[in-house]
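Exercise 7.
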Amino acid sequence: MPLESGHGVLLVVFAVVLVAPRLARLVQLPELVGLLLGGIAVGPHGLGIIERAGTVEVLGTAGLLYLMFQAGLELDHDEAFAQRRSAAVFGALTFALPFAIGTVAHWLLGFSALAALLLGSCWASHTLLTYPMFQQARAVSNRAVAIGVAGTVLTDTVALLVLVVLAKAHQGELTAAGLAIQIPLMAVAGAMIIVGLPRLTGWFFAGIGRDRSARFSFVVVALFASALLAEAVGVEPIIGAFFAGLALNRHVVEGSELDITIRQFGSTMFVPIFLISVGMLVDPTSVFTNRRTLLLAVTFTTVVIVAKSLAAAVTARIYRLDGAERTALIALSVPQAAATLAAVFVGFEIGLLDLGTVDAVVIVILLTCLFGTAAARRAIERLPAPPHRPKPLGKRIVVPINPSRSNVSVIEVAAALGKRDSGTVYPVSVLDLGSTNAQVGELRRRMVAVEEQAALAAGCEAQSIVRLDLTPAAGLVHVTVETDATLVVLPWDGRHSGSHDRFSSTADTLLDLGQTPIVIANAGELGSYRRLLLRLDRNDLIASHNAEPQADAATLAWLVATRLAAHLKVPLLLCTDADEETLDGVPGITAHVSAVNQLADAADDRPDPFDLTVRLLGGVADQQSTIWVALPRLSARPEPMTEAGCEADSDRAGRAGGGS
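Solution. The predicted structure, written as tokens, is:
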């Protein structure tokens, strides 16, 4: 008799999660295969210890949704955007070829036209079952993986839409009026997830979500709510889960507590239980006792592998992918599970498919998973390293703080510059080497309660650092190296101590010894400003036109100004003494500003007290409401900006300005 109590079922399931992957590694098999085989062993077609119906089925469904959610969450937006055309081509090919080949093959085997089409749509879809293997190998940023994951959105969505149409056609419910209602509903649901969910998440994270323990609960609610919404408008829940991951992509900072929690729950609970539940569907004896089932399983598996491999080969040929990348596409697109199971069960329930066909499809799931894992292992061993891409400006921002003063304003400036890049703000306090443990602990608690909360409220992740070092400047230089900082934001209140105040000498040290762009903020209360002025003289713009991006301080100033304007929702005004010919020579600088103020002498202009000014470091250093920017003086500098990043920020600033 199989175990029926919930705790007994959970005991068996988690014992398999604990043991099966380790046994698989001992015999040189992927952990994924070990979990599938473990599901077969304890399931109704193996030792019969537990039934799939009930607890395992519910948790398995949750695991499938979680897997699709993680795929969307970890999709590299920049890489996916760069590969959007190749992903669309691959998605179209990996749908069309299996669908066409499968439909013809099934019709020749004696299936009805609707049944043949439905089975063809099964093989057109695929499940990212091998994606965790690429995760573990840190290969998700490879272009082939990005193409495969992004292509999944297209092929699975179309395959599941075909399923809906075929089911309604078989039941006589396919009408133009029904489609006219359902398609707009699907569009509205998609907009609610892709557009509405990120805004809701930003609002929640800035409020209740400052308590980090609430963030994971919110993410799980968003995941299952999106799946339910998709199901309500006639789309499979896995599509809603995937889109929820895409929507939350920029809100889950890589390496943050939330990111680690999501990964842990996925790798230790939800995804393994899904794999076990898939294994429990497999009846190995049916292959040897039913010749028709064996014939169908062999035919179906051949169709999937040949058609998916052909789609990957054509895509690789068009876009010049190497052999390992082609194999990665095959590994990602061959495994069948999620959409295939959904389609087959729907076909069985409405009478299009018989039980023997369902058994054959379950065997196909096992065989394609084995094939996919073998292909993934082969691809991972040979995949080229992804090309180096400069880190975004706001990815890791170091902010030195003064415990004796309020640092909220400078933290908000840093968060405004970093939130678009899903960045992390590092508030840093450097103490002398004689500081006690009690002093360090008290300061750390204060930073968590004040500076970290300010960054979280402004939309960035935060991680406080208390460091003991010889001097504040030395401590900051060391922290920027250790955190691989992309920007340093220094506070300054305008007061001097002798020839330099503390932060001025720190800025000089960072400019001389560091390799990180610097922003010096004397901004006051950010909410009081009504305009943002970017002051660049003619020489700055000429230098911007002639310089390499990594040596272009004017472009850095432009990037800072556009992000601050977008954050404050104020118009951006470029103040310059440059003529129109010079401005035309630097098209990126003047795009989407609210106005250009042509000054005969920029030094004579008197800003309004409600103006916040951004300018290059140098010249007058006693101005209030000013933010200075500078690049390090070393020749080997990081590349803090890209043309695409500037254009994207320009768009945001233009919308914030509203053409005022």
